[in-house]
Amino acid sequence: ASTMFAQCTQKCTSSVLLIALLSCILSPPAQASKSSEDIRCKCICPPYRNISGHIYNKNVSQKDCNCLHVVEPMPVPGNDVEAYCLLCECKYEERSTTTIKVIIIIYLSVVGALLLYMAFLVLVDPLIRKPDAYTQPLHNEEENEDARSLAAAPTPSGARANTVLERVEGAQQRWKRQVQEQRKTVFDRHKMLS
């Protein structure tokens, strides 16, 4: 079932990517129909005499990207316009909102597919998966050892008896006991051989 869900997720993701690519290809050419939000001229003008600095944005063509066409209303009188415009730095900026939208759609599709897969793993997979006859006794044995080690160790009142730290400590104690038993058997065998 999880394999079938993964294949379905892959098919859905690939179909979303295909639709996004087709919308990019079939959309009108970028140079022919640039929307007003895709192009702009940005002029940064520093403080001049008693006028504070300001940033001006306007949707104009690249050839008209200068202080005279972008800065409106002109904050200085007519004889100071040239000096004021020499201080301003104007840059022409382009972007593709279509590309941005497609990238966001792809990103959201991948995140959505991962969330669906996580929901499947959390909710449906435990219901489908049956306990294995071989691993179940081993799991029960580990739980019994955990219970014995927790019963042997003093726990403070009010604390949760099954915290991660206590489980790690219990596993560490079991490992230490196993190592000591192995050492003991190795030394006993060594004494018998000598």
Automatic annotation (TrEMBL):
Keyword annotations of the record: Membrane, Signal, Transmembrane, Transmembrane helix
Pfam families: Tmemb_9
Ranges that cross the membrane: 102-124
Protein name per Swiss-Prot or TrEMBL: TMEM9 protein
Main localization, broad class: membrane
Annotated stretches, region: Disordered: 139-158
Species name: Pelecanoides urinatrix (Common diving petrel)
Signal peptide range in chain numbering: 1-32
Cellular component GO terms, alphabetical: lysosomal membrane
InterPro entries in the cross-refs: TMEM9/TMEM9B
Homology family: Belongs to the TMEM9 family.
Compartments, as annotated in UniProt: Membrane
